[in-house]
Amino acid sequence: MNTENTSSHTTSEEVIIIKDLNKWYGDFHVLKDINLTVHKGERIVICGPSGSGKSTMIRCINRLEEFQKGSLVVDGIEMIEDVKNIEAIRKDVGMVFQHFNLFPHLTILENLCLGPIWVQKKPKAEAEAIAMKYLERVKIPDQAGKYPGQLSGGQQQRVAIARSLCMNPNIMLFDEPTSALDPEMIKEVLDVMIELAEEGMTMLCVTHEMGFAKKVADRVIFMDGGEIVEQNTPQEFFENPQVDRTKTFLDQILNH
Amino acid sequence: MTTGIVAWMKNNLFSSIPNTIATVFILAILANFIPGLLDWLFFSANWSGETQDDCVKDGACWVFIQAWSQQFFYGSYPTEEIWRINLCLGLLLSVVIGSNFVSKTIRTKIFVPLFLLLPFVSILILNGSWIGLEPVSTDYWGGFSLNIFLAAASIIVAFPLGFIWALGRRSTMPLAKSISVLLIEFFRGVPVLALFFMGSVMLPLFFTEGTNVDKLLRVWIVLTLFMAGYMAEVYRGGFNAIPQGQYEAADSLGLSYWQKTLLIILPQVLKVSMPNILATFVMLFKNTSFLMIIGIFEILSTTQAALSNSYWLGGHANEGYLFVAMLFWTVCFGMSVISSSIERKLNTEHRK
Ligand SMILES: Nc1ncnc2c1ncn2[C@@H]1O[C@H](COP(=O)(O)OP(=O)(O)O)[C@@H](O)[C@H]1O
Ligand SMILES: [Mg+2]
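^ inputs. structure came back:
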């Protein structure tokens, strides 16, 4: 298995260190001895059958989920019960959800400014300038005054990405960002993500968009039954999968 | 147009044999009652005069209502100070109606704090002694304006209080949770009349000995707690309507618990709860007439006092109670108009 990737954009700095992470929902062992180290600038795609624990794993990284055993260090901050640590980690980690989760009672601009104003305590004018900058980057500055309900799914997801970027995160987590979208909108969201990857953002992305994985991933991780079953460069992963479960999974998603 | 009306009648009133029978039956009943009623209400009614002796015709004696109108509205509040009541009512109306016509920012930054301060500002104005006006003891407050003030002051405080109880109920802290559940279930489970009696007897126990707790203050506290229990329940429904993803998005941005609660959850809970909040308020408002029983001079007791006044012993109960019913109905109807306008506004503001 090739875990050390030496692409030019990846540095040796370790921004996420997960050691022997275990999580249970009651009796159900949902994550089993997860070990994963992510380097600054690395782009990781996580795939695997539904229910395999992909969401649960990346949600542990910003403490949307608790875990019972093991350790997790993000950007040098140890994930412990302390509210201070949790908030510090969340400031560093952006997250994009399958269902966008924009705030429906706030305009697009207000959605984007919320974090900078309330968490980073920036003045309103500065926050709005940042928001407009990122709205331009996701190519919808003209929608700033609208409410989320007035936008298409693809537009909403791009706003959600911009909302995370406004917090100037070091790490971005994506949990199936395109699977709630109509096919014709998937590309506009993937394009934004590819651009982000090219700029050197550290990304962990749960997705079944294999084209995206081949294009930008440094490493593809396959999960099943709460374990990391296999991880490799995209080329090796797709052309030469080592484990039977990976082969079955790839057959299913590539030939249907 | 005639064909339109005929067609409409055919479709709606005479579409089938049972329907036709029902229509004829109802029309017959109406024909029996309406003329007499109209005659009593308007045609044979006595409209002008000052005393009972001016009511010579068979119909309603509206002179009675006229003669007592100040009492009905303002209780025994001194005549030359009545402008203070009107000022408070005006403030209330302008804040409620005005908030519909201003931008979202002004609403949250100015109108909401104003709204929450209104009960206290009104007490200052109505009592007067703290702001250099003629002091008016609460013994003189009364009439329909008192019903309005008590209901409004209670719901305004119950708005945040009920929200805190509802938050407590959802809390993971066992103590906060059990206290909230206890309070909510108690104030929802005990009839409001029993609460009023308990308020008169028990509330003084909570104040230091010897202090004479104002009767209206006690009533206000009871009504507020009663209303907060109902509001907490209404909010609970609202909380359940908020998708989990909203909490997760707020958390992932790094918002603190209170930022998340006040900036993300509260506005959405309020929005989905608004119809139920207004329905609850209408209920509370009508319940203020129970206050008669514990000797508060609200509209119903004022009416009864007027009815038993020795100069007006002509049996004007019909006029009196009809008038009271009209007052309540008008205000409740007004509120349902305001509430549907608020709902419409909220719906267009962030279309889903
Ligand atoms: N709150 C929960 N309580 C109990 N089981 C859960 C909960 N959330 C997820 N699970 C279970 O954990 C497993 C992993 O879920 P998830 O991480 O969402 O999978 P994936 O994202 O890979 O589809 C699933 O079997 C799911 O049913
Ligand atoms: Mg998932």
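The CA atoms of residues 58 and 121 of chain B lie 47 Å apart. The interface with chain A takes residues 243, 245-246, 248-256, 259, 263-264, 267-268, 271, 349-352 of chain B (CB under 8 Å).
thumbs up if we can close this ticket
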